Amino acid sequence: MEDIDAVLAQINGIEASAAVIDNDAGALEDIDIDAALAAVAEIDVETADDVANAVIEIEDAAAEVEPQPEDIDAALKALEPVEQPPVEIVAEAPAEVEPVEAEAEPEAAPAEAPATKPAPAPARRFTDVAAIDDVTLKANLDGCKAVKVTEKAMNVIAAIESGKKLSRYTKDAVKKLQADGRVSGKSLVEEFIAKQLSDGTARAQAQQMTALFKMLGIAMPDPTNSRELVVNDADLLKELVALAA
Question: Is 92 among the domain residues?
Fold first, then answer.
């Protein structure tokens, strides 16, 4: 029985080999495997000799089902991918594009010259207009203890040298001096009160203006009446009246 089992094992192996060959061969349909197996089944395996003969016959049957080399080559060739002819890609020439003429940019209008500011009036020294000299002017300014009078004097100097606006009270005082040719503390008080100033403010401004006129040499005390001041520097007075307009 052991010999029979071995024979059966060999038969099973041959069947498996035949199945592999059948799968690999693909298109070899003319091999009759069933007939070969039927022939094997009729083998008498009762004796050892019969078993040996059965093995030989099985091997012979297996040999009959082996595909011929040319058949395998044909099957493999059928499995090879078919080479496609290379596709020639023809690039179309780009359509001619007519050049677009760039529009000429409008010419920039010539820049207008900036409006020129009038040149400032040339600076001039106060003593170029006034009759007083530099030494006397400096001495008078340094010796003045009244701050308000000094401030008014500096305002008059700046007006002559650079056109600075005269103070309100100086305007009224120089106009009065030019109109009358002389002024006094009393006449200036009356003038300021007429301009709607209070009595106290009018008196304070009148006192400051008489001191200013003497310090800058605009007017000096009348030799015949020390209470009144008469015009001493007509050119300077004329300039100040023009600035007071």
Answer: no
Instruction: Give the C-alpha separation, 191 to 182, whole Å.
Output: 13
> In this structure, is residue 13 part of a structural domain?
yes
How far is 8 from 12, CA to CA, in rounded Å? 6
Give pTM, 2 decimals: 0.51
Residue 95, domain member (yes or no): no
| Residue pair 138/217 in contact by the 8 Å Cβ criterion | no
For the chain, the domain total comes to 2
Comparing 204 with 100, which gets the higher pLDDT? 204
Average pLDDT over residues 38-50: 47
* Category of 130 on φ-ψ map: left (φ > 0), alpha (ψ -120 to 50) or beta: beta
CA dihedral 128, 129, 132, 137 (to 10 degrees): -70
Measured distance CA(235)–CA(213) in Å, rounded: 14
Residue 47 lies in a domain: yes
Domain that holds residue 182: 126-243
235 and 152 in one domain? yes
Q: Is residue 57 scored above 90 in pLDDT?
A: no
